[in-house]
Each structure stands twice: as C-alpha cells, then as structure tokens.
Amino acid sequence: MNIKYEDSLFYQINSCSRYFHFVFEQLIKQLDIGISAIEHLALSIIIDTKDCCQRDLARIILKDRASAGKIASSLEKKGFIKVNLETKNNRPVKILTPTKKGKNMHNTVNEALCPLVKKIEDEVSSKVTEDTIQTLKNFKRVVEKTLKSKI
Questions:
Q1: Which of 26, 85, 87, 143 yields a CA-CA distance of 20 to 30 A from 133?
Q2: Residue 98 to residues 35, 42, 44, Cα–Cα distance (Å)
Q3: Range of the domain at 43
Q4: Residue 102 maps to a domain
Q5: Taking a C-beta distance cutoff of 8 angstroms, is the pair 109, 40 a contact?
Q6: Which helix (H) or strand (E) holds 115?
C-alpha cells in the first residue's frame, strides 16, 4: 500500500487539529482579553473537572506536568484560578479551582466562540460529528495498543 503522507489519516487528523488550533488562537487574539488559547483550554478543563489537579490537567491537554504547572501558574497570577495544596490518594497535590473571574472569562470566550461553532455545525450534521468523534476514539484506542508506554 503506497499512500502519500498528505492523503493519510494521520496527516488529515493532524492537519484538522492544527486548523482548529489556529482558528481558536486567532479568535482569542481578536478578543484581546489577556488569555492565551492554551490557557483558555486549561481553564475550561479546570472548570469541567471536579478536583482537577495538575496531573489531571497535564493528561487531558497532552502536556507534561511541568508545562501544565506553568499554565496553572499563569492562570493563578492572572486571578483565573486558585491553587490549593491538598492530599489525594495519600499524596500532596495541587488542586486547581476556578475563581469567579475565571468563570466569567471562560463565559466571555465561549460567547465569542458560539457563532463560529454554530457556523461549523450548520455545515456538518450532528450525526457526522458524532460518528467522527466515535471513529476517532476507536482509532485512538487501536493506536494506543501499539504504544509501549502511555502518553
């Protein structure tokens, strides 16, 4: 089987991901609200994840713990989250919780995102979206089986 890399599934997934990231970064820059795209993503995860710790954040955003720690530190300095040292599974962990200011920022960005998301949803049916998500989850599971260590 001889497939050009640009025609491969791997390339299409990576390309699509990069386009989404680029569009989101442009939107964040246009808003000029003092938060980066990765910080907004982290803030969203912190809001949506009960007792979110730095390790949870790193796992979900596919970054190492040091990078997740830098993002959390930046969000804390900007007043979007609080970092509390607690014990989880008999270990000291930093629990990340959103502040009111962080929740407001999150809502502001999400309101700006709504027209973009609606435009995409109008172009692609919900069935196609759901099928694509399920297909990508299955694809990820198959690829994970080939890894010698987890990400």
A1: 26
A2: 14, 10, 9
A3: 35-123
A4: yes
A5: yes
A6: helix 100-123
Inside any domain, residue 15: no
The C-alpha angle 41, 53, 96, rounded to 5 degrees, equals 70
Distance CA 24, CA 40 (A): 10
CATH number of the domain where residue 45 is located: 1.10.10.10
Number of domains in the chain: 1
116 in a domain, yes or no?
yes
- Mean pLDDT throughout 15-36? 90
- Which are the contacts of 64, defined by CB distance < 8 A and separation ≥ 6? 58
Q: At what angle do helices 100-123 and 37-48 cross, to 10 degrees?
A: 100
pLDDT digits (tens, 9 = 90+) for 58-77: 999 999 999 999 999 999 99
